[in-house]
Amino acid sequence: MVRRRIEKVKPLKAPDGPSVVDCKRYDQISYSSGRCGMTRGHATKILSAFLLLLFFLWVPTGLFANDRRHYKVQTVSIEKMDAIIRTAGDCLVVVMAAWCHPCIEELPALKALNQKYAREGLRMVGLSLDYGGPQEMEPLLKAQQIRFPVYWTGEAAIEKYAITKIPLLIFFRDGRAVQRLQGQRSQAALEKEIRRFLDDS
Questions:
Q1: What is the CATH number of the domain that holds 195?
Q2: How many structural domains is the chain composed of?
Q3: CA 83 to CA 35: how far, in whole Å?
Q4: Which of 35, 81, 112, 183 lies most in the core, judged by the most C-beta atoms within 10 Å?
């Protein structure tokens, strides 16, 4: 059967992931009215409006649009998947499955690298191999807030892209596979390969 041909690669030893920065929350703001005679209520409203304005000026363009995507895995034909890869230019296909623990552990690093290198022309897309259908991967994408698109083609992709083991990254340039990486890697190791791929384009 097809599913017997896919194995999980034993993860390579990787260093600890990036540290998490906790944001401080200011629950109370004291205000002294001064000579202007402004009431505390008016001052609070003005301060809130000012902070809201700063927030919208700071938020990157398209952030809210990304939040509306609902982290859905799109079902496409293998022909459509080929077309997506072919028209993406410098494309990194992340082959994954919900039952593959190394794949899931690697997602935060890939998420960070996608955000960093998308501006340099890297197009990262996911390819789900879940036997239960596209819905298997969706809760994990939502939990980790993965914003690059993920597709599901059924078993057609296994033969088309000669997939035997996962995690697997396939680098495509104008539709042609130029590099394959099997096994879980640290964020630093992944970034080194992505940087090399982009520099060679």
A1: 3.40.30.10
A2: 1
A3: 67
A4: 81
Q: Please, are residues 164 and 103 in contact by the beta-carbon 8 Å criterion? A: no
Q: List the end-to-end C-alpha distance of the chain, in Å, as a whole number.
A: 38
Over the stretch 148-190, which tens digit does the pLDDT of each residue have?
999 999 999 999 999 999 999 999 999 999 999 999 999 999 9
Q: Residue written as tokens 């190791």? A: 189
Residue 69 within a domain: yes
Q: What is the pTM of this model?
A: 0.68
Backbone dihedral angles phi then psi of residue 174, each to the nearest 5 degrees: 55, 40
Work out the pLDDT band at 201, boundaries 50, 70, 90: confident
pLDDT of 164 reads 94
Q: How many helices (H) and strands (E) does the chain have?
A: 7, 8
